[in-house]
Amino acid sequence: MKNLFIYLQVIAIALIATACDAIDLEDVRPQNSIPVSAGINDKKTADALLNGVYDGLQDGTVLFDGFLALAQIYSDEAIFTGTFPSRFEFATLNVQTSNGTNAGVFSDFYDVINRANNVIELIPAVQDESFSDADKNSSVAQARFLRALSYFYLINYYGDVPLILSPTRSVAPDVINVPNDPQSIIYDQIIADLQFAEQNLGDGDVLTVTSSAATALLSRVYLYQEDWNNALSSATTVLGTGFDLNAFPYLADQIYGIGFTATDGNVLNFWYSPAECGGRHDVEPSPKFLASYEEGDLRKAASVLEVGEVMSACGLSDTALVPFVLKYDDFASGISGTGTDPLIISRHAELVLIAAEAQARLGNFTEASSWINQVRSRAGLADVTLDASNYMDLILQERLIELSFEGAHRYLDLRRTGRAQAEIQGYQPCHDIWPIPQREIDRNPNLVQNACCNC
């Protein structure tokens, strides 16, 4: 099993084609590894080092459990229909400190952080005339974005955790026995990382970390911190003047997503789809979620399939025996592990809803209504008028449907607004935090367990 803080190997992209060919920074599909001891001494090896950070995010434990499934079955968004006991603990709000899936999520996010720390430390010192300072700053900015993204999930799942900003290459106790840091300190670092990223990155496609991707994530961070003015400012910086969500089809408004190819694919379709479509169907839309759709909502057909509907998405004329998620619908190959569905990190619709919430929190209900109605209009629904009595109900409803199964949005929305206990059956305040894995507590005498229900 992995030790949280000790990673002497940095996973990186294969040096494809000839030894003289440069690696494209936008090719974030790494497949092989190089040891740190081999030296990061030119642009090619620096690019490989950076691509290793992306590879860490493609790890199945981070991708499926960390970003998606555990938070979804922990909330009222989904139910667990699989057989894994460790995931069942999340579905029943009974996560033990010994839970192996939880331990994998915790340590694998730190794996990504350690890879990012290697990039941040080593790349500025690379001496290569073909590797400009601007390109170096871009590489570091991408790594800082990915580090910030990892820490965002860690503190929202586990509370106070160690803030590690340097590569860990030693087993010395003063290096690996790192204490917890307050969430406020980690949020400060997340903001600093994202501000560096937005200042040192340019534009690119939706599978590339860009300045807009950093600003979009900043907007979410400010929202979670209840910094309404900065949440609004960051959201509208990306959206721009006169933005109209209706210019983008549903799900085609991505700002950033983690991409895959068939040869470096994912198993998201496998976990969400039923056996008839070649899947395992461990995560199913909850009856409560399915009942949340308004009549005529155009998003439903692109998001979920209900019992009795034709399974045309996976090439079948049969009708579904169980409801399932359609947002990961690459069934073309029928082979698990070859899915090319991107993991959506941010979309314009999220920023529109952040703008709506921030304006409503500031008492600007006319502006807030205008923003939320962009989302509703695209979904084929009638306008609503937000006011002091209804805005949070309506915004959370819209976030539930619009952002469904794209991340941990629903669980974290309920928790940050104090509504988890009312909406999730059996939920108690101590469920707001997941246990730090016991194996990490046992290894590190300076690491303090949090106040979760089973800790």
Brief summary:
The chain has 455 residues and is mainly alpha-helical.
Number of helices in the DSSP assignment = 18
What is the approximate shape?
globular
Taken in chain order, the helices and strands follow as EEHHEHHHHHHHEHEHHEEEHHHHHH
Helix percent reads 40-55%
Secondary structure category: mainly alpha
Approximate strand percentage: 5-15%
User: How many strand units?
Assistant: 8
Give the spatial strand order of the biggest sheet. Answer: 1-2
The average pLDDT is: 90
Rg, Cα atoms, Å: 22 Å
How would you describe the oligomerization state of the chains in this entry?
single chain
Low-confidence stretches: 1-34
Note the gap between the termini: 22 Å
Biggest β-sheet: count, sense, barrel? 2 strands, antiparallel
Question: What keywords describe this structure?
Answer:
globular, 455 residues, 18 helices, two-stranded antiparallel ribbon, disordered N terminus, two-stranded antiparallel sheet, mainly alpha
Describe what this molecule looks like in 3D.
This protein is mainly alpha-helical. 45% of the residues lie in helices and 6% in strands. The chain has 18 helices and eight strands. It has helices at 43-57, 60-74, 85-91, 100-122, 133-158, 173-176, 183-200, 211-224, 228-239, 268-272, 287-290, 300-303, 348-361, 365-378, 391-402, 409-416, 420-423, 438-443, and strands at residues 9-12, 32-35, 78-80, 254-258, 283-285, 304-305, 324-325, 343-347. The strands form four sheets. It has a two-stranded antiparallel sheet with strand order 1-2. α1 runs antiparallel to α4 (100-122), α4 (100-122) runs antiparallel to α5 (133-158) and α8 (211-224) runs parallel beside α13. It is globular, with a radius of gyration of 22 Å. The two termini are 22 Å apart.
